[in-house]
Amino acid sequence: MPWFRWAGWFPRTDAEQEWIKQQWLGWQRTGATVYYRPNWFLDGWTMPHIYPHQFADAFTFYAEHGMVGADFDTLVGQWGAQGPNLYLLARIHVRPEAPVDRTLDEYYAAFGPAKRQVEKYFRYWEDYSIRNRENAADSIRKRGGRFRRYAKYAAVADELYPPEVFPPAQRLLDRARKAAQGAGSPYTERVMFLQAGLDHARKCVETASVMNNARATAAEREAALANLAAFRRGIAPLLVSNLDRMAVIETESWELVPTAAQP
Question: Do 8 and 150 touch, CB atoms closer than 8 A?
């Protein structure tokens, strides 16, 4: 068994992905009825934590090797930051045989003339998630969150998503917004929905940098949380994030979460 730096969370190393597939085959060969019931989609907090290709590779493998059904209760509603993951998850249950890029193309097509720019935007985040997976795993493990890493994600978000990773993503979204302009309000609104998701992720990282700083005073922490709550009140009607669920993760990740932080 490989050392699971992520305890099976996505994105995995190639060795982890292959080991999990072999475990599946082992159970199938016993004649057992194999049913898929994971918690993987709890992960990522409010971040653009993107991994559709690796997830599709695993799910399709299970579907081709005896999976009789699946149950996901971990849809945490981060549509503004993790849309491709969530769209793919819904569609792959209906069409597990479809190529993953064809399914994702359906999602990107909803952005009209900004389709390719939005695809590049999420490819940027998927590449980042894959490239950073081992460093991120180490950060989580040091805080005792290896197996319930989703619950401790806010405690390391500022390490996982430092400020310099956001400007390249912003430039890609700027190009998407420019492409959508003049093509009708739905496309511009949809790009701006993603913009709200990115702004929220950035605001959460700013908050995490204070909350995870051992030298921060109680007053500084309360001010950071109040600022985050004010921002969230502004985006709450857009439904880019399940803010109630995020507050649960923040309560587990941070020492001080006063009621003022609840939107």
Answer: no
